[in-house]
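Before the break, one more example. Copy the sequence into your notebook; we will annotate it together after we see the structure.
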Amino acid sequence: MDIIFKCPNCEQELSVAESGAGTEIECPTCNQNIVIPFANVRDGVPRPMAAAVTNAARLEEKHFVVPQHQKAADDLISKPLRPLDVAAKDGLQIHLKTIRHSECVEVGKDHFDEMVTRFLNKIGQANLVSINPISYAHQDLGSREWVNDYGVMIVYKTDGPT
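Here is what the structure looks like once it is written out:
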């Protein structure tokens, strides 16, 4: 038969085999050491409980106690960002900057990476919405031939017009 008792610290209802009466265990809820009480104590002498009492105890609905913590739990769901149309009404503006590779070549030196890096540092990571590669064709002024080239399109936000 099982002994059904409550932890004196957290009041968690526990059930232990009768052979464990009198031994010390750690409560699985509050981790405090507790002594398992005897099933029935009369005149200081442990006595077995009546079968009807133990069966009734088994049928009793068990209510579990939820442990309480001193600090608040972290939010599992964060607040969503405002939609862009609402943000635009509040003064937040979305801008677009296209940097083409052909515009970054001077006297045979390629400054594309430096120009993109400089612009990204200027707007800051917090204001960057997206950066997208682009490919395009343009006509070379010297040879009059069409040249395929690339660049980037940067979408960013600001609090006011720039």
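The first strand starts at residue 2 and ends at 6. The chain has a mean pLDDT of 79. Try to locate both features in your own notes.
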